Amino acid sequence: MTRAAILDVALDLASRDGLEGLTIGLLADRMNMSKSGVFAHFGSREDLQLEVVKLYHRRFEQEVFYPSVKEPRGLPRLRAMFARWVKRVSVEIASGCIYISGAVEYDDRPGPIREELVSMVAAWQGALLRCAHQATECGHLKADTDAQQLVYEMYGLILALHHDARFLRIPGSLERASVGFERLIENYKA
Amino acid sequence: MTRAAILDVALDLASRDGLEGLTIGLLADRMNMSKSGVFAHFGSREDLQLEVVKLYHRRFEQEVFYPSVKEPRGLPRLRAMFARWVKRVSVEIASGCIYISGAVEYDDRPGPIREELVSMVAAWQGALLRCAHQATECGHLKADTDAQQLVYEMYGLILALHHDARFLRIPGSLERASVGFERLIENYKA
DNA sequence: TGGATAATAGTACGAGCGTTCGCAATTCTT
DNA sequence: AAGAATTGCGAACGCTCGTACTATTATCCA
């Protein structure tokens, strides 16, 4: 299916230039197709963007979420989630992360794309939250652990990784994310 | 000076729509001026963007940095820096923060604007780093404190604040940033 | 083999962008 | 008061964008 191939390249372009920077003309060039040929596969540019977001979400789930839930519930699963997340972002240092760039692009731009992005990021944070709760229920973390706070700080470590490595290009950011996570867990450990 | 008034409005627009979203036509509308009238004050759009970035930096310094260095060096100063920083970002939840949106917009777009942004953010991180070093020298923090790691995590807390409050619109993010900072300091305290 | 069906190309349009240029109005200088 | 310099306006240019419409080519089924 040509459509799938187009979406694949579109995801690549959107990762680099942002969802708003994704343009049909450039996409057609990369595909060696005409603009109208590419356009015909999607009803509108917004539809194309939405499909790209959904594709990214599927990739993220497949690479980070699903393999992690195979780990034993509680702290090991939470650790796996963070480790795979870091690994994913460390690859995206070269290409860009749509969750993060999308969060900035659509923080004040209403519409279906923003809604799609918000619901996906919220779903991921929800998964982390459930996992953190289970970790306290299993007795891996202290009983009075504030799971929301834990997820908040995990997200901060990832955002800082993206910022320092991709924008400022500071080496060693990867290790800093891991060190931060270990310190975080050490604080909440039972 | 009309130029200063234009820059003021331009900063507002760039905060909302990003530096790349800043357009001369919209700016002219907001100023009740013609496009060419606005344009004449700057040699090019890029110059306008650069001036906006510099203006933002001056505001940031004035509001966050300068008042903080009046505090006693070491931990009190570091605390003041973070507190004022949080306060500033909490205001920017409504308007947007150019350091953060700029980091995403220009992480892969070479040119003078990226360079300006990088040098400014690096300067701010440098100031935090020096302050953290002084805090260990003063004996406020443990002697083996990794200042880079500390700054990294502080930055993460701020990024998470911006993300959760402005994009996801989760209430209580402000408190989470403060709680995270306190836990951070508690870890590194002498 | 021929005719419906889908996929791609080509062209054109209208809008918005940054930018240029010439002209009017205002302000400053002497 | 006259001339120079600044400041703003309006129209136009060339470009790129998303999109619509029409043809052409390929595919597949009877």
Quickly describe the structure.
Chain A has 190 residues and is mainly α.
Task: Let me know the average pLDDT of chain A.
Answer: 97
Oligomer: homodimer
Distance between the termini of chain A: 52 Å
Low-pLDDT windows of residues of chain A = none
**CATH fold-type name of chain A:** Tetracycline Repressor, domain 2
Listing every helix as H and every strand as E from the N terminus to the C terminus, the arrangement of chain A reads: HHHHHHHHH
- Rg of chain A, nearest Å: 18 Å
- Tell me the name of the CATH homologous superfamily of chain A: Tetracycline Repressor, domain 2
Biggest sheet record of chain A = none
Which protein chains are joined by the largest interface, and how many residues does each one contribute?
A-B, 39 and 39 residues
InterPro entries (chains A, B): Homeodomain-like_sf (IPR009057), HTH_TetR (IPR001647), Tet_transcr_reg_TetR-rel_C_sf (IPR036271), TetR_C (IPR011075)
Organism (chains A, B): Pseudoduganella violacea
GO molecular function, one term (chains A, B): DNA binding
Protein name (chains A, B): AcrR family transcriptional regulator
